[in-house]
């Protein structure tokens, strides 16, 4: 589990209280169904052991073929997209083919009425809950988040008029608002004007969606602004970063080692042994301590760190081999 501070913990706490606690029944185990986005989201902020403690016995991909488990209820934590909703309907479309005893459905973001209406095709009384929890971003680190708009740069800056820039803007704004909601903030929105209108346009959309989200009654009264400030900048604010090579330890590690999804591989006892995996995340105190330091400083500290890790004995083997490999690769470069 993540440490009890920072964005990852905040996201996990929200998932725990608004999903797992919401449908909890003492002594009852459930199956958790995820799609591509929510799998990545959940993986970023908790481990399987955390889910086991919350009564989740199995985690499955909603898009894959699954065996029916008629005596267990299922929690569906999914994106509000047609593909995911269609798979829910498929699981409960007939009484004889229901995969689970019942379904608790939680959408990561606002779900259009057209998709809600699709759920009416499910067998009566099988859907026990259907809610939106508003988390449509990835908590990458305790103070870093990513949005789920992979082609945003092209869509915002492409001269091609056929590119749907407005759709990208709407998606980015909505995801930023879910971040604010997760942090329980209604920030003042500031932006850098010119040379393009992207920052201003996005700021206007975010402010509009914040007002809509925080409406409290029919008089359109909105939650008061908090002291926090949301600053929106475009790439033109810091163009040099695109042509300079980042020299922090974290950046260099990802440059020189074949790390995928924050996972590195190593062999404990030489080339003949079975390969193992280690994860670079905030559960590793050494990684948190050195990741944002300049590589020259870290290289000087590595011998001392290796000695400290070796003496601690706690999961030291993989960490030591990782540090030594990093050291060797960086000296080669």
UniProtKB/TrEMBL annotation:
A Pfam family it matches: Sec1
Family classification: Belongs to the STXBP/unc-18/SEC1 family.
Identification of the protein by name: Syntaxin-binding protein 3
Record organism: Engystomops pustulosus
InterPro entries the UniProt entry points to: Sec-1-like_dom1, Sec-1-like_dom3a, Sec1-like, Sec1-like_dom2, Sec1-like_sf
Keyword Protein transport: yes
GO-annotated biological processes: protein transport; vesicle-mediated transport
Gene3D superfamilies: 3.40.50.1910, 3.40.50.2060, Syntaxin Binding Protein 1, Chain A, domain 2
Keywords: Protein transport, Transport
């Amino acid at each position: 589990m993540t440490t009890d501070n920072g964005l990852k913990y905040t996201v996990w706490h929200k998932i725990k209280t608004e999903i797992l606690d919401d449908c909890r029944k003492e002594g009852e185990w459930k199956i958790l169904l995820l799609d591509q986005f929510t799998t990545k989201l959940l993986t970023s902020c908790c481990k399987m052991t955390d889910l086991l403690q919350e009564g989740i016995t199995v985690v499955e991909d909603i898009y894959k073929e699954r065996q029916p488990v008629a005596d267990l209820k299922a929690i569906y934590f999914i994106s509000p997209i047609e593909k995911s909703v269609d798979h829910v309907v498929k699981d409960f479309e007939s009484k004889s083919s229901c995969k689970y005893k019942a379904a608790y459905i939680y959408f990561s973001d606002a779900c259009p009425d057209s998709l809600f209406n699709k759920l009416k095709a499910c067998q009566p009384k099988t859907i026990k809950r259907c809610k939106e929890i508003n988390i449509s971003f990835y908590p990458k680190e305790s103070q870093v988040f990513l949005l789920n708009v992979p082609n945003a740069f092209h869509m915002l800056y492409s001269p091609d008029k056929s590119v749907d820039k407005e759709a990208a803007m709407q998606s980015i704004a909505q995801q930023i608002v879910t971040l604010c909601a997760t942090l329980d903030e209604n920030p003042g929105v500031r932006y850098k004007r010119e040379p393009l209108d992207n920052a201003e346009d996005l700021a206007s959309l975010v402010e509009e969606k914040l007002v809509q989200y925080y409406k409290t009654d029919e008089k359109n009264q909105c939650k008061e602004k908090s002291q926090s400030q949301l600053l929106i900048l475009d790439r033109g604010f810091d163009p040099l970063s695109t042509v300079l090579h980042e020299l922090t330890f974290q950046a260099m590690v990802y440059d020189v080692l074949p790390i995928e999804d924050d996972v590195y591989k190593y062999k404990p006892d030489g080339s003949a042994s079975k390969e193992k995996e280690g994860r670079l995340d905030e559960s590793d105190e050494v990684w948190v301590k050195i990741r944002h330091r300049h590589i020259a400083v870290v290289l000087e500290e590595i011998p001392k760190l290796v000695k400290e890790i070796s003496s601690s004995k706690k999961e030291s083997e993989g960490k030591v081999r990782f540090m030594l490999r990093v050291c060797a690769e960086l000296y080669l470069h």
